[in-house]
Hints:
- With 84 residues, chain A is an all-alpha fold.
- Chain A is built from 4 helices and no strands.
- Chain A has one domain.
- In chain A, helix 1 crosses helix 2, helix 2 (40-51) crosses helix 4 and helix 3 (54-65) crosses helix 4 (73-82).
- Among the domains of chain B are: 1-99, Ubiquitin-like (UB roll) (Roll); 323-373 and 579-762, Rossmann fold, CATH 3.40.50.740; 375-572, Dimethylsulfoxide Reductase, domain 2 (3-Layer(aba) Sandwich); 810-898 and 921-933, Beta Barrel (Barwin-like endoglucanases), CATH 2.40.40.
- In chain B, the strands form 10 sheets. A 7-stranded mixed β-sheet of chain B has the order 14-13-28-27-26-15-16, with helices on both faces. In chain B, strands 32-36-33-35-34-37 form a 6-stranded mixed beta barrel. Chain B has a 5-stranded parallel β-sheet with strand order 21-18-17-22-23.
- In chain B, helix 13 (460-473) packs antiparallel against helix 16 (505-512).
Amino acid sequence: MPIPTRNGYVPALPMTDTELDHLVQMANDIARNLDVYPDAAARTADHLRRFWAPALRERIVEHRRTGGAGLSDTALAAVASLDA
Amino acid sequence: MATPIELKPYAPQPDLGTPAAGGEPVSLTVDGTAVTVPGGTSVLRAAALAGVDIPKLCASDRLEAFGSCRVCLVEIEGRKGTPASCTTQVEEGMAVRTQSDKLGRLRRNVIELYLSDHAPSGEGRNALAELAAAEGVTESRYALGGRTHAGLPVDETNPYFRFDPGACIVCYRCVRACEEVQGTFALTAAGRGFDTLIAASQLDTFMESECVSCGACVDACPTPALEDKSVLERGAPEQVQLTTCAYCGVGCGFRAELKGGEVVRMTPWKDGKANEGHACVKGRFAWGYATHPDRITSPMIREAIDQPWREVGWEEAIAFAAGRLKAIQAQYGPDSIGGITSSRCSNEETYLVQKLVRAGFGNNNVDTCARVCHSPTGYGLKTTLGESAGTQAFASVAQADVVMVIGANPTDAHPVFASRLKRRLRQGAGLIVVDPREIDLVSAPHVRADHHLQLRPGSNVAFVNAMAHAIVEAGLADGDFIRERCEWPAYEQWREFILRPENSPEATAEATGIAPDTLRAAARLYAGADNGAIYYGLGVSEHTQGSTMVMGIANLAMLTGNLGREGVGVNPLRGQNNVQGSCDMGSFPHELPGYRHVSDPAVRGAFEDAWGVALQPEPGLRIPNMFDAAVAGRFKALYCQGEDVAQSDPNTQHVDAALRALDCLIVQDIFLNETARYAHVFLPGSSFLEKNGTFTNAERRISPVRKVIEPLAGHEDWEVTQLLSNALGYPMNYRHPSEIMDEIARLTPTFTGVSYDRLDRLGSIQWPCNADAPEGTPTMHSTAMVRGKGYFAVTGYVPTEERTTRRYPLLLTTGRILSQYNVGAQTRRTENSRWHGEDVLELHPSDAEFRGIRDGDWVGVESRAGETVLHAVVTGRVPPGVVYTTFHFPLTGANVVTTDNSDWATNCPEYKVTAVQVTRVTQPSDWQAGYRAFTERQEALLDAARSEAKA
């Protein structure tokens, strides 16, 4: 069960899906916009390294390890290279 | 400790009578004094430069010479008659005499004629009265009881100034100011002969007329005919100090004029290089918010947001905030808290907040509201040109031959720049407007766009690619410039891409809605210009491809060689006063001040040495990341200075959930803004009149902000951040914001030459300012790109996933209006709401008719994210299929409707494209009902705190 905050607010379940959904969407957006380059996966990975906080990279890496649902091919390849 | 207020005795701004000229030097004498001036200078101005003050009434150095009042007459050796010195140009060897019996008689006679019909109804500066006194005229021989204009009704309709026809001498300065300076042409002289009267529009009242209340007429008027009501009510100013406007990204220089410690008028500073003596209705008049009763001047705390606020002293509030932050970090880890800086705050304040986060909090979880406006500009221009900033000074537009305005509405959002632009357009420059909506520039008095490319929202990149395709295809690329100034392999790769059939005007027409022939004509106009300049706004950046579009614009400029000199360039029009500065100061989570990545060990090492702590080498959380992490339970506390994320950020209901999930929200603001309703600590901020600092405008111009009244709550904002930092155990000991700027200069290569002393001396400085450019850099990339060689980024068009469907068949886009500013916290608390008291929804007559909607109806606007209700305005300004609103009022809930979609590179929200349905309704939306209830509850909790404090 989620823990109520000091404000008595109880976050909706499941707590983390919104964040993960957004991360998947963001990774795919980056990949789609860089797909025009032949080295799109490398460019996507570089973008993630330069602009994503480590906690977010860890979440998307973990998501790929568990199947990477929703990630595009380029995004999957990019995230895999972060996990290398 | 508070810094002292430094005011100077009031004196009016010098007026040399006619504008400066630029010809070859010409030498002459005036009353025996030798003077050398540029050819083309008037005798009136030459005399003023020689220290000889020729009387004048209709002349002003802000206006072209008019030769109407006949007061500035002179005698010139060897010439007959007594020519008007304002319309007579200097000649080599000319000998001018400004005083003689004959001239005195003529002048006194003219003054008597004026005085015979001059009856001001109130006090105020009066050049005619001063002139009469100086010339010894005490009565008029022509005041024989005939008809006069005395007693005609005074037009009091404008909330900020009045027009008294009895005091008017029909010198046309107001009419000419409206035309030449502002470019609105709202004023005229109606009637003939004695019946001639200055009139707004067609003898309307000022409020009913086309007047935009910029104040140029009031500043130009030599009598009390047009006078500030604040001066009439509070008296003439006695002290003055130079400062910088806190509204839009133009950053106008102002004179704060005071009497008895109270501001009585804000007058545009003639030597202010951003505005050169002009202003708009916001900066000139809408400063009353600074002393509005809604200002909160005591710190407040509470355990939870459903509890009443408790007013406390600074020490208790800071200790409470610091205690909460420390406890949260101890429980949840160092990365569980963060901060948000604001583009409304000064450079010194934003620098200090990001320093507090990086050095005091020990993480890089700092972001700024530029995240939701111009972050794509930073990314796009850094990638292509090497620097996250516009390339020109505003004055550069006077050299442009063709101007392309993309996704910006300068007459509303950047009005003082718009006046410059319109002046150039009246001189004949070409204009291309790229906007789904028919903005005023498309067809304004004496301005008409050569092309209005009314593209569909969301198709920007398809458009810019088609422009580039057409330019390359037509052989209009500047090969020499590209070879010399850009990376050739990247250009070849880009060229192969851009010439693909998918980027042709024909192939992109379906997405953009722009006819191929029209697009090709616009491309030829821009590329064929000697000087082609691009100005763009949030209609470029606030898209899922905002960064791509910025890179596409930079590509166009490089492709056509339109960089590195006056009259050209890539010019982002920044929304708020210090968007550029807040970004420069290292407010983004991945960058230290000066746009240098936190992973760079040399850069990080310099800051670590200066700040005495180790810094994290990885990026921190962006604002939307913070909200997601808050909802996920990992992000627990936020220090938010001067920014109102609850109103300005997209998907309000998600923001609401995030803010409610925080264990400690510290808001520092001048009002209990929307975000503060979720706060546990409220730290009262100071308005721009109450502190020292600097703002950096859209042309990279750093301008001083100077304190003219004491902070109502006792502290300038930088002091509050310092108090919090010290309470957290990270010592800060600045005694004045100049010391903060000195630190910025030591650590930031583009700022090494910036200091308060130099700012005092130069007035303002455009960065880079360093050993290579000790007085600043008006034009960037003049000899080489900042990154060395320009980079052509490949800009594939990726349509937004926000599409119209049968359920959501219309596209909503958002924007701003002249009288209101951003989330409206300031302007809603002024008389500006008389012009715009609520946000409305514009929709096309065909869309309205199909839905049975009439002008003024309540309409519901529903998207995938939420629903809101507002009044409809049926207008042809928007094309069929597109609806438009502004976001100045919280109850409008424009961001209840906007979605989570964001720019791929920066997460700037896609405010400009939301698929919606619009229907006629009879009551507010559920969200609005909930908003009202929450607001009433929070206001009650605030009232409780105030009542308790009084008791």
